[in-house]
Amino acid sequence: MKKYLLSLAVVSLFYTESEACAWSDPDYEYFNLFTQSIIKDKSYLPFLHSYSTRFYTDFKPSLIPDENIESWKRYFNNQLSYAQTEYLVNKMNINDLNALKKGSPTNQLLVTLGSGFYQKYREGIDYLIEAKYLEPYMKINYIESADSFYYYREPGTGKNATNLDYNKTVAALTSLYNAAKNPEIKQRYGYQLVRFNHYTRNYDAALKAFKNYVEPIRLKGAPYIMALDQVAGAQRGLGMNSEANWNFFQVFRDSKSRKESAFVSMKLSDTASFNNILKRASTSEDKNMAYFLLGYEDFNNPIPVMEKMFEINPDSEILKVMAVRSINELERSYLPIYYYTNENGTVTEKKNSENNTASNKTETAEPKKEELSFWQKIVRFFKNLFSSKKDKNSTDGKADQSDDELLNNPDRIPVFTKNNYWYDDKTRDFLDDLEKFTSKTKEKSRDKYWQIADAYLKFLKKDYKSSTEILENIKTSNPEYLEEIKRMKVLNDIVSQPKIDADYENHLMKDYSEYFAEKKEVPKDSTETDEYNYYGEVPSTADFLKDVLANRYFLQGEDGKSFLMNNKLSDLQYSPNSSLVKSVEDFYRKPNKTQFEQQIIAKNIDEVGNIDAFFAVIYGDRAMRQADFEKAKAYYSKARNFSGIPRNEWNYEEKKLTPMKYQPGAYDGFSNISDLVFGHNVWVSYQSSPEESMKKEDYSLFPFIKPSMNKLELADALIQLKKIGNGKDEKSSRANQLIGNVLYNTSILGYYRQLFVMDLDNSNGGKYYFDTSEKSNPYQYYYKGFPDRVYIEPDNYDLAINYYKRALNTSTNKEQKARILFQMASAEQGKYYQYEAKHPSNIDYSDPKWSEKSDAYQKQLDQIKNQKYRTYFALLKSQYANTETAKQLMGSCSYFGYFMK
């Protein structure tokens, strides 16, 4: 089928939060083209947009330094690095510090620092010794109550602050406080007094300790922030929620590393927390921070809050956080990682799903009414996405001819006007409003971030020219900004390109090869675990660009290239439909490939053993399903070196997937086919062994049928049977019956249904769906997710029936005729299943008469089945009911027994 070249639009389908699979991860379901983390103040990273976790976590923790460690680093006159300081403060054993105090250090870091280190920083080291002694006990004692859910219960030792002698501990800390000369160290002892009283639930004493020992020092650094955090906790314990909330707010405002915990504490303290904070805010900074928290908490429409923040300070860093969260929300709506189109024209989004049927007969469930309406909106929009860049009324030659072909071809996507959107007005308005806000802010703010954001929003709106112009005029030295600008220029260039030809492929390799070339695997750090990632890698810009090109090639009619942009050659086994296989083979054999085709696309022609044999088996299988045994033999003769269907298996020794090794005598996609394929069912049980489910016919007249064959030998045997079947005797009847058996047994209903669809066993899967619709090909935009979506040409049961008819007409044995008629009836049953799958019920679940209408529809199906698809059952019942064969069948086949009644 000729495809028409259309302009790819970047905006994709709407992301829905309801997922069929409980393990799906929404943070892996869009392309992350706009990097949220380019904000300058990294302390706000936890508050970027995330659906998978309460706070955003996709960043290195080292990007948010702990102000406490920074304070200690300064105390030690920067003699230690941040990492060394963090180790000394948080991880070093108390015994190592005591050894340093005694003048005999053994810890390598302390040895390196030298013997004078303790004398120089004596007060600080002594404090750390005391703090490390107290630390295991610094947990609040758990008391079960209705409002104690936020307290941490120690799972291991069960130690808490009440295990220490209260009076002795307070006395010791007070003495150390009074003895300390360094104001910061003195304040740290004050912090310990506040914390100890908080955790022993002496809340009033905690507040007094803060007033008497922390505030008088008049330092507002890390010790003060930590003490204020503890005071707020004590105030919450006293029910002073408004005061607690205000102090937690100050911790949030002034701390870099404690914003998450302070935010959670504010939530726990007061349900009206952020509104109350806004009332107390007096400075511009406090007001802006309060507005941020209010907008973060209620993110339905953040723009009104952002407007207020803009009025206070257009250069505010937290305003950028609100903006990037809004951009990310839009990106999730516009850029899902998968989309498919069903034969009825509706677009569905499907991720990591397995096709599985519980029975031979596919049951089709109808979507609910509201879902149908939703998907209709989607398909209308998506059809618009691929609209022509030229006006269809223009008269510049070939483009108009293609438009006419497109509009007259019902199998292609009709062109819609660019004002036809899939999404609702609220989503569209949000994009428009955010673009207006960003355009306004970029004129007032000195931060180039706003220009980048404005360019990206224009990219989402398909205004690639304006987006590129903005990017070209941005002058910045910020490396994160420069990387985002570079990426967006690439996106604008590729997405706006009307055709991907050889010249453009050369341009891709010359200028953008880094987005397509295979990345070298980075050796795993020794601290990393081998935990399996169920979601794979987070979708990237490179993944998005591959999808863009895959779609372009698809619409240009280059299916082979489109397929290989997202899949391996070996993936053809999962859906070996002939037209796609031919297109992939044409690309494989294409001479003079461009550099892009060689290095980027052709690299996915992976190891399948002998590639020519791989293609030959697929073509031979299709010929067998069409009963063209001569053509099949010709293909199979080129497949003698076939090394087996390429499958992987888990190697427990190497702890990775490795190519499967076929055991001697096992079916591998070509060899070791049992002669039971010529037999008939004893009962329908795909899980049972061949000997349990199948019974041999009498092969004595046909010595060329071997007990075990490869596909070449099987095709040759069928050719010989076909010649014998041209006769008029009992032998010819037997030959035609055996041919019919093979065709039926290798159909979707047969025990050997795997033989001619590149599968290894007959277990349920997408290859065995009943759907004879001419438009059942699910690939309408590209071939991404190919192994999850199946399209194989449907079985032609008339081929088997025709051979059975020849057998019936030349047979004189009544028992044999009964057997043949039953096989014909079974094949006819397959034709009914195809009809049923092609005509699903369109009754809406929301219809109050759904049950009544469904029953009526089922009665209609039953009537059609009995009138049109029970021909051979009726003949068997009327003329051969008294045969031993019919009697045995009634006992072993339930639906035949029911029909005979």
Protein model, in words:
- This is Tetratricopeptide repeat-containing protein.
- With 901 residues, this protein is an all-alpha fold.
- 52% of the residues lie in helices and 2% in strands.
- It has a two-stranded antiparallel ribbon.
- α13 packs antiparallel against α14 and α37 packs across α38.
- The longest helix has 25 residues.
Question: Can you give keywords for this protein?
Answer:
single chain; 901 residues; mainly alpha; two-stranded antiparallel sheet; two-stranded antiparallel ribbon; disordered N terminus
CA radius of gyration: 36 Å
How many alpha or pi helices?
38
Distance between the termini: 49 Å
Structural class of the helices, strands and pairings? mainly alpha
Largest sheet report: 2 strands, antiparallel
Strand content: under 5%
- Oligomer, anyone? single chain
Number of strands: 8
Helix content: 40-55%
Averaged pLDDT: 82
The main sheet orders its strands as: 1-2
Q: How are the secondary structure elements laid out?
A:
Elements: H1 67-75, H2 82-91, H3 94-101, H4 108-113, H5 116-120, H6 122-134, H7 166-179, H8 183-199, H9 203-214, H10 222-237, H11 241-254, H12 259-269, H13 273-280, H14 284-297, H15 303-312, H16 317-334, E1 340-341, E2 347-348, H17 369-385, H18 398-408, H19 425-444, H20 449-460, H21 464-472, H22 479-495, H23 502-512, H24 541-555, H25 559-566, H26 578-589, H27 595-601, H28 611-625, H29 629-636, E3 648-651, E4 656-659, E5 673-674, E6 680-681, H30 690-693, E7 694-695, E8 708-709, H31 711-724, H32 730-745, H33 797-810, H34 814-838, H35 850-868, H36 871-880, H37 884-892, H38 894-900
Antiparallel strand pairs: 1-2, 3-4, 5-8, 6-7
Protein name: Tetratricopeptide repeat-containing protein
Region (Disordered): 390-410
Organism: Chryseobacterium salviniae
